[in-house]
Write a structure and sequence with these properties.
Mean pLDDT: 89
Number of strands: 0
Strand content: under 5%
Oligomer: single chain
Radius of gyration: 20 Å
Order of helices and strands: HHHHH
Largest sheet: none
Number of helices: 5
Length: about 160
């Protein structure tokens, strides 16, 4: 994978994860946008009634933001094994959610709900998760480039002193 492709892939995946993480932090404040109330939000996002309390959504936000950071760092050729492991975990998590969504869409597994969740799962959640899983897995499986300025001294450039 070319360096610019790695960077763009990392930016795209990290950007989506970060926006989702920030949205979870927003919900932790008690806000329910884009829904009218907490019940409607829960049914649209999860397909079932669940509390959107800080105790529930803050850990999810932390997980999403950590994943975003790791993907960004790894896409830049930094972070070593830890960033690669977390990036791999992000790919696996996204793939699992995407495959679960496919199961719900095709009727192979029982869907959590009908209504707004079913439509959002079909047109947004599942395609985004599968696309990001593919991109993240591709990023994780590509050789890590050597980050700039990581070499030893004596790279051939000398500082000019006047």
């Amino acid at each position: 994978m070319k360096t610019t492709t790695r960077h763009r892939t990392g930016q795209a995946v990290a950007g989506v994860l970060a926006v989702d993480g920030l949205l979870h932090l927003y919900w932790a404040t008690g806000a329910t946008w884009p829904a009218v109330d907490a019940r409607s939000l829960s049914l649209a996002v999860l397909g079932l009634e669940a509390p959107f309390t800080p105790r529930v959504v803050v850990p999810l936000a932390a997980l999403l933001l950590t994943g975003a950071g790791a993907v960004m760092v790894y896409s830049r050729g930094r972070g070593g094994r830890t960033a690669r492991l977390v990036t791999g975990a992000v790919a696996a998590g996204l793939a699992a959610r995407g495959l679960a969504g496919l199961g719900w869409v095709t009727g192979l597994t029982a869907s959590p709900a009908e209504g707004p969740f079913r439509l959002l799962n079909l047109v947004l959640y599942t395609p985004v998760c599968l696309g990001l899983a593919w991109a993240t897995a591709r990023l994780c499986s590509s050789p890590t480039p050597t980050p700039p300025n990581s070499g030893a001294r004596g790279t051939g450039r000398r500082r000019r002193t006047s």
